[in-house]
Amino acid sequence: MRKLEGRIALITGAASGIGKGIAITFASEGANIVIADLVTEAQASDVLTAIKKLGREVLFVRTDVSDEASVRAMAAQSLDRFGRVDILVNNAGIFTESLLEDMPIEDWDRVVNTNLRGTFLCTRVLIGQMLERGDGRIINIASQLGQIGGGAVAHYSASKAGVIGFTKALAREVSRRGVLVNAIAPGPIETPLLASETEAWRSAKLAELPIGRFGSVDEVTPTALLLASSDGSYYVGQTLGPNGGDVML
Ligand SMILES: NC(=O)c1ccc[n+]([C@@H]2O[C@H](COP(=O)([O-])OP(=O)(O)OC[C@H]3O[C@@H](n4cnc5c(N)ncnc54)[C@H](O)[C@@H]3O)[C@@H](O)[C@H]2O)c1
Q1: Rounded distance from Cα 125 to ligand 1 centre (Å)
Q2: How high is the pLDDT of residue 182?
Q3: pLDDT digits over 52-64, tens only?
Q4: Is residue 127 part of a domain?
Q5: Which atom of ligand 1 is closest in space to residue 144's alpha carbon?
Q6: What Gene Ontology terms for biological process does this UniProt record contain (predicted)?
Q7: What pTM, to 2 d.p., does this model score?
Q8: Is residue 201 part of a domain?
Q9: How far is the CA of 191 from the centre of ligand 1 (A)?
Q10: 87, 36 Cβ separation under 8 angstroms
Q11: Domain presence at residue 18
């Protein structure tokens, strides 16, 4: 028996990287998928084809998670197509680097609005139908930089620490009503986002990582599957860390 048979999972930012890996993993476990991403449908063709090959249904909705009207339209289209969303993965995220004294205010706003406001907006628009059914899973992709901070990424670290705080607060609010909310705080994972890091950042990070290498998307997706499936039924407000030892709690 597949672990997500018949479930409907909506994953933001799933055209690339970790979100793409989660979408394909969930589809291979029997879920039908909504992909909400800023890119065009054509740019998401890899993941759409992979999901169709697995025999699952997939809907792509071009979405800006930081924009309320866009998120509302995305939710309406998803509910219209599938009738419900059982699993929401707030994965869409961006990363830029800048020392604080030089940080453009637009960078702060863009990073916080995508990573934190986007998580709030997508959750807000979809949690009502989960609470009505007394059933749902919300998985927020945070980052280890939200736990330990990082130089030249104060906006990113603040947004991801915000995602962790949001996860804990919401878990306290809704767990008894059947919706389980948790976060994943990956360490450095080889994706286009990590490729945008400076070489100096990459070598400094490699030197301090206990495991001595960056992770792969396939080393994050099992954690998402755990939190989305019945195996994860006693996880509430947790932040799980596939991070190569970057953070040890
Ligand atoms: N790669 C890492 O090392 C790492 C580590 C910790 C946390 N994370 C987090 O994991 C998540 C996925 O990152 P990734 O490494 O796969 O990055 P990625 O750049 O490969 O993918 C991010 C996706 O989000 C989409 N996106 C960006 N802004 C959006 C918006 N406003 N609305 C909708 N979609 C938008 C992009 O189009 C892209 O498809 C992010 O939240 C990131 O912060 C990544």
Answers
A1: 20
A2: 99
A3: 999 999 999 999 9
A4: yes
A5: 6
A6: monocarboxylic acid metabolic process
A7: 0.99
A8: no
A9: 9
A10: no
A11: yes
- Ligand 1 atom with the smallest distance to the CA of 95 is 43
156 is catalytic: yes
Cα(207) to centroid of ligand 1, in Å? 24
- Residue 88's SS3 state is strand
Sign of CA dihedral 11, 116, 83, 8: positive
Q: What is the pLDDT confidence band of residue 206, given thresholds at 50, 70 and 90?
A: very high
Please compute, for residue 95, the number of CA atoms within 13 A of its CA located in the half-sphere on the CB side: 21
pLDDT at 201: 85
Please answer whether residues 21 and 45 qualify as being in contact, where contact means their C-beta atoms are separated by less than 8 angstroms: no
pLDDT, tens digit, for every residue of 76-128? 999 999 999 999 999 999 999 999 999 999 999 999 999 999 999 999 999 99
Domain around 139: 8-188+217-237
Any ligand 1 atom below 6 A from CB of 143: yes
95, 193 contact by CB (below 8 A)? yes
Whether the CB of 39 sits within 6 Å of ligand 1:
yes
Q: Which residues contact 115 (CB under 8 A, 6 or more apart)?
A: 92, 93, 94, 156, 159, 160, 162, 163
Task: Kindly indicate the confidence band of residue 200, based on its pLDDT and cuts at 50, 70 and 90.
Answer: confident
Choice among 82, 95, 120, 156 that is catalytic: 156
Residue 155 has pLDDT above 90, yes or no: yes
92 lines ligand 1 (CB under 6 A): yes
Domains of the chain: total: 1
Q: Which of 18, 24, 112 to mutate to test the pocket of ligand 1 (most atoms within 8 A of CB)?
A: 18
| Helix, strand, or coil (residue 191) | coil
CATH code where residue 12 lies: 3.40.50.720
